Amino acid sequence: MKSVLVLGQGFVGKYLVDILESSGIDYASTTTSGRDGTIKWRVSDATHSSTLPAAESIVVTFPLQGEVEARRLITEYLHHHRKVHGDAYNPFWVYLGSTRPFKETPSTCHSKPDLVAGGLRVEAEEYVVGSCNGCVLNLAGLWGGDRVPEKWARFYASKDKLRNRLKDRSLHLVHGADVARAIYAIVGNSDKSSQFAGRWLVSDEMVYDALQIFIGAEHIQEYLRELLEEAEVREMLSASKLDDIEMGPSAVTKRIDASHFWSRLQLKPNYLYTVGQPDAYSKPLIL
Predict the structure, then answer these.
(1) Residue 193 is part of which domain span?
(2) Which DSSP string corresponds to 171-219?
(3) Which domain of life is it from (predicted)?
(4) Phi, psi (5° rounding) for residue 256?
C-alpha cells in the first residue's frame, strides 16, 4: 500500500511530489497523459479503480463536479480496495478547493461558504467533509514558477472589469510549495483524522493590493486614466490622477484569515509575494 496517492499531478501536485520524493515517501500520482512515470487516469475513469493503488492518504488536486462525481469516485475506489484490504480500509481524503465562495470579512475556518457562489465545487467539498470525514483546503490565489500574479492583469481587459475590481482590491495568495508543505504535514500526522478533518482556509496570511500588482500593465494604466474622469471612481480611489492613488496593504481589507490553519500545523508560509521579484522556490534535494 502506498503512503500517498496524488490524483492530479498538476500545479500543486508537482510541488507535493518534490517533497514526497525528497523525503523518501512511497507515493503514486496520476496525470491524464501518464507523463513522467505517472499513472494515466481521468476522473471519468473512476469505475476503473483497479488502475489506482491503495493508499493511506489520497490527495485530490482538481475540482470535482458536484456531490455525484465525488461520491462516485470515492465509493468506487473504496469498493474495489476493500475487497483486498478489508472493510476497515478507510484512507484519509484531502481535497483542494477555492476561497472564492467565502464572503465574510474576514472569512475563517469557521465561516460557511456561499453555496450558490461555490456551485458544484462546494457540493463536492461538502461530501468529502460530511460523508468521508475528510479534509478540504480552500486555497487562495495560487502562484509560483511561471504562475505570476502580475500576468493576471490580462483578466481585466475592459474598463468595466477593472472598475468592478476597484470596488474591492484585496487579493490573497499562497505559493504552491507552501500548500504542498501543508499537505505533507497533514498526511504525515498519525492523528490526521481528528486533527485536520473539516474545512480550512489557506493563504499566506498577507493581504495584497491587486491594483499595486497590476499597475505595471500599460492597459491597466490607460483604463485607470480614463476611469479617473468619472466622479464615482475618483471618490472610490480618493484620487484625481494616477500618481495620487494610495496603493499597498494599508489600502485594502483583509478578506481571508488563515491563522487557524497554520497554527494547527505549527508552520508558517515560506514564500511571500513581492511584485517584480523572482520566485525563491528551489526543489528539495532528494535524500
Answers:
(1) 2-146+173-204+255-265
(2) E-EEEHHHHHHHHHHHHT-TTHHHHT-EEEEE--S--EEHHHHHTTSHH
(3) Eukaryota
(4) -125, 125
273 within some domain:
no
| Helix (H), strand (E) at residue 83 | helix 66-85
Q: Which residue has the cell 473512476?
A: 46
Tens-level pLDDT at each residue, the chain (287 residues): 999 999 999 999 999 999 999 999 999 999 999 999 999 999 987 667 789 999 999 999 999 999 999 999 999 999 999 999 999 999 999 999 999 999 999 999 999 999 888 899 999 999 999 999 999 999 999 999 999 999 999 999 999 999 999 999 999 999 999 999 999 999 999 999 999 999 999 999 999 999 999 999 999 999 999 999 999 999 999 999 999 999 999 999 999 999 999 999 999 999 999 998 999 999 887 64
Rounded to the nearest angstrom, the gap between the alpha carbon of residue 47 and the centroid of all alpha carbons in its chain is 27
- Cβ partners under 8 Å of residue 156, min gap 6: 162, 165, 214, 219, 220, 223
The reply to whether 53 falls in a domain is yes
How many residues can be counted in the chain? Answer: 287
Residue 247 lies in a domain: no
3-class state of residue 226 by DSSP? helix
8 Å CB contact between 73 and 115: no
CATH for 97: 3.40.50.720
pTM of structure: 0.96
